[in-house]
Amino acid sequence: MKHYPPSISNAIKCFSKLPGIGEKTAERLAMHIVRSSRKDAGQLAESIRELKEKVMLCSMCFALSDSNICKICSDPARDASLVCVVENAADMVALEKSGAFTGRYHILQGVLSPMDGVGPDDIRIRELIRKIQAGTVSEVVIATNTDVEGEATASYLAGCLESYPVKVTRIASGVPIGGDIKYVDQVTLKRAMEKRHGV
Predict the structure, then answer these.
(1) Which CATH architecture has domain 64-198?
(2) What is the pTM of this model?
(3) At 170, is the secondary structure helix, strand, or coil?
(4) Order of strands across the sheet that contains 197-198
(5) CATH number for the domain whose boundaries are 6-54
(6) Per-residue model confidence as pLDDT tens digits over 97-137
């Protein structure tokens, strides 16, 4: 890296801070941008700036959005009485791609993990309960991952919701144990959503 001018060295340093990007890949990315047209480089820079300036959490479901209420929550065709609880935005996107779910979402922004110091107050469980207390939700589908933390979170949520007049279901098998929802193919996800069961 010392052989490059400071502008390229700085770009390499910035790229290497991204997850999964080592120094060699960062170098290739920087050199690709050097060879790119000014227009393409400008579009990349602008898209990064927009990410930081425009992206926020939806005030209703906590999905990533460019506005206060995301497209799913503002869609009148979505069933507001059916809420699917997922760990993160990537899981919601995976379920949306499957086409199996027509309700709305609640994104926890994490899972319970006592080993990492993550308890019920650190994820969006209170907000889910407030949503249910409003009286418009009839079914909560728990679609956390099937790893230890995801299962613990699902069990905890089921216990929290026992005293409310809502049906609580868990997505069915088909999602592999220990697997991440975002990496499961759409057919398997669709089948898991259609065959969900009581907790």
Answers:
(1) 3-Layer(aba) Sandwich (3.40)
(2) 0.77
(3) strand
(4) 103-107, 79-86, 139-142, 167-170, 197-198
(5) 1.10.8.420
(6) 988 899 999 999 999 998 888 988 999 999 999 999 998 99
